[in-house]
Amino acid sequence: MPRKMVVIFGVSNLLWMMFAASQAFEIEIFPEYKIFAQIGDSISLTCSTTGCESPSFSWRTQIDSPLNGKVKNEGSKSTLTMDPVSFENEHSYLCTATCGAEKLEKEIQVDIYSFPKDPEIHFSGPLEFEKPITVTCLVPNVYPFDRLQIDLLKGNQLMKNQEFLEGMLTKSLVTKSLEVTFTPVNDDIGKALVCQAKLHIPELDDKSTERETTQILQVHSSPKNTIVSVNPSTRLQEGGSVTMTCSSEGLPAPQIYWSKKLGDGNVQLLSENATLTLIAMRMEDSGIYMCEGVNPVGRDKKEVELIVQEKPFAIELSPGPQVAAQIGDSLVLTCNVTGCGAPSFSWRTQIDSPLSGKARTEGAKSTLTLNPVSFDNEHSYLCTVTCGNKKLEKGIQVIPYSFPRDPEIKMSSPPVNGNPVTLSCVIPEVYPSDQLEIQLLKGDSVMKHQNFLDMVGKKSLETRSLEMTFIPTTEDTGKTLVCQAKLHIVEVESEPKQRQSSQTLHVNVAPKDIQLTVFPSESVKEGDTVTISCTCRNVPKTWIILKKKAETGDTVLKSTDGAYTIHKAQLQDAGVYECESKNEIGLQLRSLTLDVRGKENDRDYFSPELLVLYCASSLIIPAVGMIIYFARKANMKGSYSLVEAQKSKV
Q1: At what angle do helices 608-637 and 642-649 cross, to 10 degrees?
Q2: Which of 184, 223, 300, 377 sees the fewest Cβ atoms within 10 Å?
Q3: What is the pLDDT of residues 230-280, one digit of tens each?
Q4: CATH of the domain at 484
């Protein structure tokens, strides 16, 4: 190293040492002395030093309990974070900083409190004039409650206040309340009921320690002085009309309900308007009508009796007071009059909409033909008969419905043993669809049942369906699936209209129980006849494919009903034979090895050709011997004659 550079380096070190010696080792903590922390919030305590390049830090509580916080050190600063703050953080925390041989310590007190929500105002019941009621001002999850004060005011008047100075036995969140009972009067309407809560912690600002809730008083009065007016009279002629008006006093203003008492003691609700108008009155409309004023704190009622008197002539409507008609069909309504020589007829609907039908009158009878029946015919039809100065009217309710076809049973896929399948029971073009009931059965057992009574019906032909998923088994084959549909038209018929469809289950099975056999044996002799047979008992029927396996490629064999015959087996017929059984569901394989033995390997082998050769040799050898014998004899005589030879023997 050059001498000049050494001198410069030494001078810089000396200056740095002098600067460091000039700064004293000090410790600071923030906040300085004490901090109030809300339970559930997050707070951080920061400890920092000056005068030390690489200080080390440690945190502890005054009583060496767990910190219940997370420490993070960065250079000359250390942070203790408590998230969330809890009762375990109410300690005096000490930060210790060490720099070489020097050690410094700073302390900070952490106090906790809980005042998370505004007070709650509760009433023991509805506020009614001149009826005592208890109001409760409730302050939830407060700590320390011995510093809590609650004030309850009505308008500018203090009703009650309370401080909770009793000692706390345990550290816990406590709900404190203040109760006042008072009797509401007219002047209380619109006044503000104010619940104020204050937690006395001088070290905190008012925003953190003061909360309040306000509620405007709404004083109610029960309905009274209910009055009914009737026009024209409480006594009426059949076919007449009446208007009844009802009023009732109360706060808030009562809701008016009109109803009629029925013979069985029940009440039939008619209207929620102050005015009730009844037209085309009949004798059966006679009875006691009731007007009732209702508000949140009570009810008051007034009754009036209406008497409907019979006219001297009568009307008969057929098919009856109510009739259910299939949409698309034709329906004839007939109005017959008795007790009048020359009646005149007119037809209308209860709400004066178009008839959507054709009227015809003949003498004492009038008909209204609805053809075809449609949604437009869903009315109460009134037949009005005038006889001199008297008029009589009678109604028939037409209820259109649509239930034209039997249910349709659908499956998401052919049923397969062990595979889930979704069944659908579909009811097309039904109305009213919210009156439909569907039941799906398998054999005698109900698989699923559904009512559509809770669905909002539309004025249209709709398709409803019932779906379910089940896992078929082979035991289901032959069982009957039945979809039953019922359309309830309760107003007209006590028994629902019914339709059903059925379908016999055929459960498919993937190929199984496959058998691959060889006759007479898997080991045969060259020249034998061999039959290889593959069978599979299955539903549905499977395809059988016989193959001979080879490294150069498989050969598909021409089989008949799964059987393949080898006539005069050769050595090359030996090998692996495979049966493949498959259907739409799956496939299964079986294989066997055929062994063909050659002749040279069979000591007992004795073919027909060898037998012929053997027999031929047994004849040829004696013949050759005889020829040689006679030849020799001819040589001795010079000639040979078979005849002479024979003669000589004679």
Answers
A1: 80
A2: 300
A3: 999 999 887 889 999 999 998 889 999 999 999 888 999 999 999 999 998
A4: 2.60.40.10
